[in-house]
Each structure stands twice: as C-alpha cells, then as structure tokens.
Amino acid sequence: MNNSLLKVENLKVRFKTEDGYVSTVNGVTFDVEKGETLAIVGESGSGKSVTSLALMGILPANGEVYEGDIHFEDKDLRNLSKKQYRELRGQEIAMIFQEPMTALNPVFTIGYQLRETLILHYKMSKEQAQKKGIEMLETVGIPDAEKVMGRFPHQLSGGMRQRVMIAMALSCNPKLLIADEPTTALDVTIQAQILTLLRNLKEKSNTSIMIITHDLGVVAELADRVIVMYAGEVVEEAPIYELFENPLHPYTKGLMASIPKIHDVVDELYSIEGTVPNPADMPTGCKFFPRCPIGDIECTKIHPPLEYVSENHAKRCIKV
Amino acid sequence: MKYFLKSLVKTIPVLLLITLIVFLLVRVTGDPVSLMLPETATEAERDSLREAMGFNDPLPIQYLNYLRDLVTGDFGDSFRYNTDALNLILERLPATLELAIASMIVAIIISVPLGILSAVKRNSFLDLFITGGAVLGKAMPSFWLGIMLILLLSVTFQFFPVSGRGTLGHLVLPAITLGTGIAAEMTRLIRSSMLEILGQDFIRTARSKGLGEAIIVNKHAFRNALIPVVTIMALQTSTLIGGTLITETVFAWPGLGQLLVQSVNLRDMAVVQAATFIIAIFVILSNLFADLVYRLLDPRIKYD
User: Fold this and answer.
1) Residues with Cβ < 8 Å from B127, sequence gap 6 or more?
2) How many structural domains comprise chain B?
3) In the β-sheet with A63-72, what is the strand arrangement from edge to edge?
4) Which stretches make up the ABC transporter domain (chain A) (predicted)?
C-alpha cells in the first residue's frame, strides 16, 4: 500500500511500575491511508488510547515504546529528535480527547489557546492568529466566534468545548487527526452533531482520521475501516461493511451482540462475561480464551497469529 | 469592585470583636497599676491611680470609652514610653513591613524554581535533595539559622552588618532567616500543586499541540499551580507582620513583634491594644489582597 500515511508495525508499549515493566500494547500492526477514517475499537484497557498516545509521542513519563516501528509518511517517528517530534505534533498529527471539560486549560481564554498553536507552528502574528482562530471556530459551527475567542473554557458547554478542541486540532491543517473517544463524554444529541461535524470536515479537507472508541455506533457513523483491539493486540481488522456483515472473532461478535436492539425484547441485555485481563497477568495462549464462548483446550496452548481470510479481513482466532 | 467594598464593610465586626477580646485579655491577666508604681507605693496611692486611669469604672463603660477614643485614633499613652501608643506602633511599622516584604521576596525566589524543578524531575535525586532541603529548612529554628548566618557572613566574612536597621545590607540576613522557613513550606506546596496540575488532561492537550516543555511547565501548569500557593503566601504574610519576635531579637531589628511582646510582659495596655489592632488590619488586608490575586489567576472564581 503506497497510499499509506501512517504505518504502525509490531508496536509494543510498556509501563514501568513498582513491580517491574507491564506491557499494555503487545505488537500492534496497522496502517492509516490518506483520506481514510480508521476506527480502533475495544473496551477500556484494550490498549487503544495508549497506542494513540504512543503515536503522538506523549506517553506518560513512565511509559515507553520498546519495540516496533512507526512511520508517518517518510518519517520514522521512533528516531525523531524531541524537537522534530514537537514540530510534527499539532501540525501534521493533531489530537482531540475524550474529556472536553478538562482538556482545555481553565485559566486561559479560548482565543489564547487557539492562537498558541498557530503562532507556534505557522509563526503567525497575534492578529493573524486571531483572524484564523475566528475562522476555525466558524468552520466548526460556533456562533459568535469572535466573542467566544474571549471566553474561558468554563463558560462554554461540553459540546462547544469539543468543537473548540476540534477547531484547535484542525487549525494547522494536519494530515492525521487522532480522535480519542471524542463523543463519549457528551449528550447523545451533541454526539450526533460532533460526528456529523467530523464527517463534514473530513470530506472538505482530506484529513485522515483515526478514531478511537468503544462505541460501535460511532464506528458505523464515521469509519471506513475498523480494527478491533483486545488486551493490547489487534484481534480483527476489516472494512466497515464487512465487519458489520460478517464479524469473525468471538470478541467482535460479543461487542456486536452487546448493542441493544430496539425491536428485540429481551429480559437481560447481552454482555461479554468477565473483564479484560490484567496486563501484568496475561493468560498464555489466546488472551480472549477466559471469556470466549467457543474456545477449548487448544486455545490455551497456542497464541493465535493474525491471519488474513480475505484481502482486507483479518482475525486472530483459530476456531473460526 | 463591589465585592471588595462589601468585604471592607464586613471587616468592621471582625475588628470590633478583636478589640473586645484584646481589651478583656489585658484586663484579666493582671493589675497594670502594680507595674506602673514602685513596689513601695501604698494601697491608697494605687487606688487613686486606678481611679485616675478609669480602671474602677465597670468594664462595659471602660470598653465604650476605649472605643470612643479609638475612633478618633487615640489608643491612649504607653505607660512605659510615656508617649502616644499609636505613634509608637507607626514608628515601628515601616521596619516590620520592610522585613516582611523582603522575606517574602526571598521565599519566592527560593521556592518557585525549586518547587517547579522538583515536580518536573519527580523521584529523581534532585527531587530528593530539594524535598530533603525543604524538610530541613522547615525544621531549622530561625534563631539558630540567624545566628549561624551572622557568624558566617557577618563575623567571619563581614559581608553584612551583624544587626540593626538602616542600609539594604542590614536587611539581607534577617530576610534570609525568615524567608528560608517560608520558602521551605512553599517549595513543598508548589511541588505538590505542580504534580497535580502536570497530571491534568489539559497538559496532555498542550503537549499534543507541540508546545515545548518549558512553556507547558512555566505557563500552562504554573499558572494553575499558583492558586493554592497564594493562600499560603497570604497566611505567611500575616505571620510576618505580627510574629517575628525571635528573628527581630536575634538581629536587633526594631519591628512590631519585639515591641508587642515587651508590652505584653509589662502590661502596657495601650500599646498591646494598638499593636493588635494594627496587625489585625494588616492580616485582613493581606487576605483581601489574596482574594484579588485569586481573581486575576483563575477566571472561574467570580465574586458578587
């Protein structure tokens, strides 16, 4: 695929804890093509957020990428100097976060926080940045943009703040936008607005989007292709329609079954039994085995590889 | 602005209460007359002095008389110095304020960089060194530090005068002595406050924008971390105005603390009352000032 913008190969991330290193991302491989929207799906603890922080080079101080490659266009991100990485962040790869309530600095105005990125990366003057900032706020559908520039984050609603975050992230026209659960903390009606906004912006700007979520509804709304992650690994990869039509991995099927359906009357909603295993204490063999409805003794012996069943559909399971 | 006017009005009952408490305390702790007259004075002489000073009136009457004089700025005369008590205080006040401000500057100069550094390099050797130093600074008695500074920098090396007030040089050692203790406390507070802020989501946002570490730490984080620090600064300023007796004594600094303690010992009522009143005003002012600074630092705080 020579059209790929981001190529992640065998990425492994670990954290230093009091009991030694704990690996939370265990050999993740995927790529994001130009203009594509890739969704990474998984429940809490599956390593999806850590993967995105690793790509941005902003892992917490006790975390590190200890194996694998990250290529962004022709750049090898693991070998960038701190300065080169900083220039990349915010300009070529931008990120929006889950919690719009806390993701903006409470003591600076919206305008200040918007201008900051522009002045930093584009060396704009304050006036130019102000103008561009207002323009960006208008692009993300904020009314009274000029006034909002002078407001503080606490004076805006959650949806507005997420719009500001998006405006900030897109202000330098990044090639890749990483959106980490961008709608999780918002009301349902606001969620829909934000998703529509992201879709429209993508159509206009040809920015690739990598969206991280546990919400398959969001995936269906936005994504071209999906990666399902479980316990720090990719367990299934498929184009969006393929995945919804024909999910292969029992974990993916479990996720699909967990979505309540309006026409079925059931006493109890479906959920996948158990929880994601503790990274410090991973099962040998298939990591999903303890929660798997179809696994047997064979699954405890071998760690299944990611196998392609068709050109673009891959699964990590020996039973299907 | 309206908030501050309101706050000023609210200080009136506080001040009244303070005058009442001090008024009662100086009267229940002993007979001032016995110290004003020689031991050989007869009971009749004592009685006539009490009568003349108004000490035989019922307490409420005495208090009202005291308040009436207070409103005109008359706190009475000092028994010991035989001069107007308020003038005595006002003479000492500049020395106290000068030392308080200088100590605070020393404390800020020491604690801000050290607190930030130890938060950024947390759990490193440097952090250990700074936090260890902060515990030491807090534990070190100020009279000991003051004397050591004098021995080293005034006696051995003769950089600064040993004691007294006058030049800027006189100010250095007492300011370092007082500033060190405050810096120790502020360093630890800045460290923990910075640690908390550095873990916040908006710091991650700042990183994701590609900002440099220096801007993230000194601007995005520090501005937020300052808010609790201002509270401690206001409290410490209050202490500096009233309670620096030991340092004042070590350096023969002619401040309020010394005067107040001497006056308490001698039951010099007028001076005690005037001094506590003036100190109370400064405590209130420093708190109001802290309120004002909060508002400048944190737009979420609104008073009305």
Assistant:
1) B117, B118, B119, B121, B191
2) 1
3) A20-33, A4-17, A63-72, A75-76
4) 6-256
State whether CATH 3.40.50.1000 applies to domain A4-92+175-315: no
> How far apart are the C-alpha atoms of B186 and B104, rounded to whole Å?
11
What average pLDDT score do residues A264-286 get? 78
Q: Is the pLDDT of residue A1 over 50?
A: no
Query: Could you say which DSSP state residue A276 is in?
Result: P
Q: Amino acid identity of B25?
A: L
pLDDT greater than 70 at residue B192: yes
| Disruptive mutation site among A49, A72, A105 for chain B (greatest number of B CBs within 10 Å) | A105
Q: Are A220 and A241 in contact (CB under 8 A)?
A: no
Q: What span, in angstroms and rounded, lies between the C-alpha atoms of A93 and A81?
A: 16
pLDDT at B304 over 60: no
Q: Which residues of A touch B220 (CB under 8 A)?
A: 105, 108
Burial per residue of A297-317, b for 16 or more beta-carbon CB atoms within 10 angstroms, e otherwise: eebeeebbebeeeeeebbbbb
Portions of chain A given CATH number 3.40.50.300: 4-92+175-315
Structure tokens at B276: 């506590």
> What ipTM did this prediction achieve?
0.86
| Contact residues, chain A, for B297 at CB < 8 Å | 107
Kindly state the DSSP code that residue A179 receives in the 8-state scheme. E
CB–CB of A116 and B209 under 8 A? yes
Task: For residue B212, list chain A residues with Cβ-Cβ distance below 8 A.
Answer: 86
Residue A261 — pLDDT band, cuts 50, 70, 90? Answer: confident
CB contact under 8 A, A120 and B209: yes
